Amino acid sequence: VTGEFVAIGRLARHLPPQTVNGVSRGEVWIGDDAAVLRTPTRPWTVLAADAVVDGVHADLRLTTLQDLGWKALTCNLSDVAAMGADPGHALVTVAGPAGTDLEALYEGLGSAATIYGCPVVGGDLTNAPVLVVSVAVTGTADGPPVLRSGGRAGDGIWVTGPLGASAAGLRLLRGGSGRAPVAPEDMALVDAHARPVPRLAEGRAARAAGATAMIDVSDGLGADLGHLADASGIGFELDEVPVAAGATRAEALAGGEDYELVFTAADPARVVDAFASLRRPTQIGRCVGDPQRRVIGTEQLLAWGWQHRW
Amino acid sequence: VTGEFVAIGRLARHLPPQTVNGVSRGEVWIGDDAAVLRTPTRPWTVLAADAVVDGVHADLRLTTLQDLGWKALTCNLSDVAAMGADPGHALVTVAGPAGTDLEALYEGLGSAATIYGCPVVGGDLTNAPVLVVSVAVTGTADGPPVLRSGGRAGDGIWVTGPLGASAAGLRLLRGGSGRAPVAPEDMALVDAHARPVPRLAEGRAARAAGATAMIDVSDGLGADLGHLADASGIGFELDEVPVAAGATRAEALAGGEDYELVFTAADPARVVDAFASLRRPTQIGRCVGDPQRRVIGTEQLLAWGWQHRW
């Protein structure tokens, strides 16, 4: 057990150094009342916040603190991706019990921060009986971000990758005894659950393709596409969705935490062009005018998904 | 008990409407993956985050949820004030048990947001066994923010108001039986504890006065002035500090949560000018070159203050 200020000093080692590219003269990150940054020159700013709670979003018997840190930042970066924006900076607030291995947590946070170019420039450390990692991120865009509300009847619906891998990975972890290893061929699924990838390049490409609406698949396709349809005042008809190898169709439709992006766009040729250097997204259906109509094939697509209770 | 999305809809009522002054065309606050804002045109941005935890920072047997919400935002605004910056926008993440009266919490958050001009534009609601309210705020300034690190030997040290009221208010609350009323003449102290005031105008004035370093008194004068001295590489000699009516000298020196600002500046005349329309700050001492020398009168000023344990 150590004091807060010693802990902050140790953790700073896991955060990208203050002299990397992008740090302008006069900027100050860790160690003052607030981080000081040059205001970005791009015309649009996005702000998002998401928390990860031990026992609710993650089970530390199945998840390392490194992975928890990774997920706490990347689920926020996924929100930035879903706007078609680029990451700016992150603030990380950790509330947790004395004895929490903060270095492990910040190792995961720092890895994601470095890989995706979103330095952690501040935050707070505070004691609490349960571990809650709250992250807030900024992002910027040089054009209007893609909202959930712009989908129009006739637009195609695309998804940036197969779904269900995260839910399948969690199923495999739960089937094992605690941290017991799983079969090698299952490791890709476990990885998809433990180290989700924010689809930042894909979000930018979708915006370049003229995407009319976009959301990330965090709660489950049915729930998230439902949010997009609600915001846009539309319904949808899906043909089928790409299911990750090793996942079930139910996991793909309702599993959540895949962090692939779902977007609507009017012109398939622009989508193909914009994704020329990326994995090509799959068109899974189209928007329709009747907001009640939300089907996959002949089935109703249930808006099942995780909701916290209040 | 209700669902997350219904709860968000209800809470939006407590947040300033999206059409008030300052909301530019194309901005979107609540309801998308991220809030969308016009990038501010001022050259400097500050980012700060702070959390309030039930049972650690606040005792819900002594504090209402309205006051907890107020404090969660204002302790962040105090960090913005301590940079000499103006508030921008806030993100609020609430992790807590089902049944938490979110409307009461957001009533307090919304009041502070409206009064201090820092609208809540997003965040997250998630379940957790204990209530943790994490807030992140942005701010802007048209000149370089005031850091902790610019204090120089010979600078005067000022405080923007008397200290100890918050600690005295907490003492009175604890002395009572739970929420029992306290004597009318004590209510100012209880208010100072329950509804701290971020010294935003004072922070701007200090920057205008050429303040070389600044910090807010959140942990206690000894601890916070110690942080400033550490960052500036200086020591200090204090004469005496203004003690709030009804507070003890010990509460003023070590109590914390007063959220007054302490700043260093070279020119007393500029300080008087810059604070012409505000309560005049009190010069409490001066910076000295020896970083070991940290005294009030002939006593060592202990850097006592709250530290979380890790």
Helix-and-strand structural type of chain A: alpha+beta
Largest sheet of chain A: 7 strands, mixed
Report the helical percentage of chain A. 25-40%
> Which two chains share the most extensive interface?
A-B, 78 and 78 residues
**Rg over C-alpha atoms of chain A, rounded to the nearest angstrom:** 20 Å
Quickly count the helices of chain A: 9
**What topology, given as strand order, has the largest sheet of chain A?**
7-9-6-10-8-11-12
Number of E strands of chain A:
12
Unreliable spans of chain A: none
Tell me the span between the first and last alpha carbons of chain A.
34 Å
Percentage of β-strand residues of chain A:
15-25%
Oligomer: homodimer
Write down the overall geometry of chain A: globular
- Listing every helix as H and every strand as E from the N terminus to the C terminus, the arrangement of chain A reads HEEHEHEEEHHHEHEHEHEEE
Q: What is the mean pLDDT of chain A?
A: 90
Ordered list of secondary-structure elements with their pairings:
The structure is a homodimer of 310-residue chains.
Chain A: H1 4-11, E1 35-38, E2 44-53, H2 65-81, E3 86-96, H3 102-116, E4 120-127, E5 132-141, E6 156-159, H4 165-175, H5 187-194, H6 200-208, E7 213-216, H7 221-232, E8 235-238, H8 249-254, E9 261-265, H9 268-274, E10 282-288, E11 294-296, E12 299-300
Parallel strand pairs in A: 3-4, 8-11
Antiparallel strand pairs in A: 2-5, 3-5, 6-9, 6-10, 7-9, 8-10, 11-12
Helix pairs in contact in A: 2-3, 2-6, 4-5
Brief overview, please?
The structure is a homodimer of 310-residue chains. Chain A is an alpha+beta fold. In chain A, 30% of the residues lie in helices and 23% in strands.
